[in-house]
Write a structure and sequence with these properties.
With 199 residues, the chain is α/β, with parallel strands linked by helices. It has one domain: EAL domain (TIM Barrel, Alpha-Beta Barrel), CATH 3.20.20. The protein contains 7 helices and 8 strands. It has an 8-stranded mixed beta barrel. Strand 3, helix 2 and strand 4 form a beta-alpha-beta unit. The longest helix is centred in the middle third of the chain and has 14 residues. The two termini are 32 Å apart.
């Protein structure tokens, strides 16, 4: 059965700088079904995506925010499909702040990527203390900061945690080796608005 809510045409490819495809990110927030059992819509389809991905082992990044994230955190046992080794939940800084201890506890079950590292009023400690598997930089943040003296040190501190450092951009503007030299591990080809997650 085809999943009509998570279309293959609203995914963004994630690649290494040598062009190797490492996964995809859905560009629309993850949706819950209206079914009585409150399980994911076609959850097995979302993870396998047999006809949409070159191989099933690729990373699948699923944006969650607001009520959807709250529901996932309240019913962790219903979301074993999102706890698979190749699945990452994408959250933003607002969700990190609001999630508190519950979100931190959920990191024992889910793997998280942060898609918003520099909103106004951000406190570095909140981000530094959370066990993210990946950090995704916006094209705007990267463009504004990559020439600054402190930028390589920021990324080096993130790489020490063995987190993926991904640039989300419509296209690469620098030579590929420049990104690797700056400690980035890959890039996500942006196909929708600059903000993957709202609120």
């Amino acid at each position: 059965m085809e999943n009509s809510l998570i279309s293959p045409y609203v995914t963004e490819r994630i690649r290494r700088f040598d062009g190797t495809l490492i996964g995809v990110c859905h560009s629309a927030p993850f949706m819950l079904s209206a079914q009585r059992d409150n399980r994911c819509v076609n959850d097995s389809d979302i993870i396998s995506l047999q006809d949409q991905l070159p191989k099933p082992a690729d990373l699948i990044v699923v944006p969650v925010t607001g009520n959807t994230l709250t529901h996932v955190l309240q019913c962790i046992e219903n979301y074993s499909v999102l706890q698979k080794e190749n699945v990452r939940l994408a959250i933003n800084y607002a969700s990190l702040q609001q999630g508190g201890t519950v979100l931190r506890d959920a990191a024992q079950h889910f793997s998280f990527w942060l898609y918003d590292i520099a909103p106004p009023g951000m406190e570095w400690k909140n981000m530094a203390d959370f066990p993210f598997d990946g950090i995704v930089l916006t094209d705007e943040f990267f463009s504004d900061n990559y020439l600054k003296f402190s930028f390589p040190f920021l990324l080096a501190s993130l790489r020490e945690r063995e987190a993926e450092i991904i640039l989300r951009t419509p296209q690469l503007a620098l030579p590929e080796h420049s990104y690797s030299d700056l400690q980035l591990t890959g890039w996500q080809q942006q196909r929708t608005s600059s903000q993957l997650l709202e609120g």
